[in-house]
Amino acid sequence: MDIGGTNLKLGLINDEGKVEKHEIYSMEDLLSHSNFIDALILCLNKFVGQNKITCGGVSSKGFIDSANGEVIDDVSLGKELRGFSICQILSDKYKAPFNIENDAKCYAWGEYKFGIGKKYKTFCCITLGTGIGCAYVDSGNLFFGGYPWGGVLGGHVSIDRNGPKCDCGNIGCFEMYCSKNGILRILGESMPSMLASPDPIISFFSSVRDGNINSKEVFNDFLRNLATGLVTIINLYSPNAIILGGGIMNSSDIFLNELKEIVSERAFVVSGLECSIEKATLGNYAPLLGAAFLPKMEN
Q: Does residue 131 lie in a domain region?
């Protein structure tokens, strides 16, 4: 399962990595229940049905203590899982081992095992979704740093010291400009009428395609801010590639090529020339496959 900021995604996956069943549930609906864990179990029971689970992986927002199978902390919805040994709860329920890891790390691992990440020795995976996730794979290993949650905070690198305060406590975070929530914040300030549409993000990028002048100005800022964040991460990690995933990438046809040009011009010369920028290939399946095939699960 993948517990994200907007949706809960569930998948049944066989030993070869084929997703045999896949469903998406609204996190808003789940959180409307008085007990989130009970609502989660109800969804799982309905989804699993009579299928036999041999092991399970959980991809979740937030700082993850995978050894104890729980979420330590988060700046937003991941807080709903704090204090619950979710892996133990699920293991007891389904009589199978479960493991949990940060959603960006699961996304990166899915792309490494089954997607475009197979091409690269080292890469950073950046997910442009409700927030911005970050994970680093080096020679077939996820990077953890000195703590279990190391390497996931690329979205909280500051790209503007005079910017708005983020829920994490920092100022001008990358996530405040280039995530779904960041774009919604900016649209609320500059194009508030856009927020009345059923999906303001889709409407925004559609209006850019249509040549709307106001949208184009916001879009140009988005593109420059995205390039700034990526250049910072490239200069820090020197990866062979940046792999971009998440819902914002559904509109990558109008910005990916120009983004590559800007990053190539601005990143430190060696890193900028040698780092490819790729669109993730697995979409919603990436974190599900990553969670299912985490090294601990395979061992």
A: yes
